[in-house]
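lol ok so funny story. i was supposed to be doing the assay writeup but got distracted and ended up predicting the structure for this chain instead. priorities right. anyway since i did it might as well share w the group, maybe its usefull for someone
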Amino acid sequence: MKKIHRHKTVDSTDYGYTKCVAPEACNPIAHGAVCAVEVCRCGWIRETNRNGGAIEIGAWRAPKPGDYPGILKLLTQVKEEKEEVEGKERDYVL
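and the output, tada:
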């Protein structure tokens, strides 16, 4: 039986606040300080706004070409690692 892929943070980088990351559940108290950008092993990212004790968690999504240059560099390394194990059987579904 194959396992279903569940996003799990493998790297996190802090940036300054830029926008609301969860428009459907916007929390204005969390705006203004730090936006933590988390990267999953599959290459998707999730943005989280943090200000004091308030947190606003965004959804996992595929990165856009203009998003976070440092993260795009990391994703390039992840893709190279995936190509190395391309021929091996995996026990999870992406």
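The mean pLDDT is 80. Residues 22 and 53 are 17 Å apart (CA to CA).
back to the writeup now i swear
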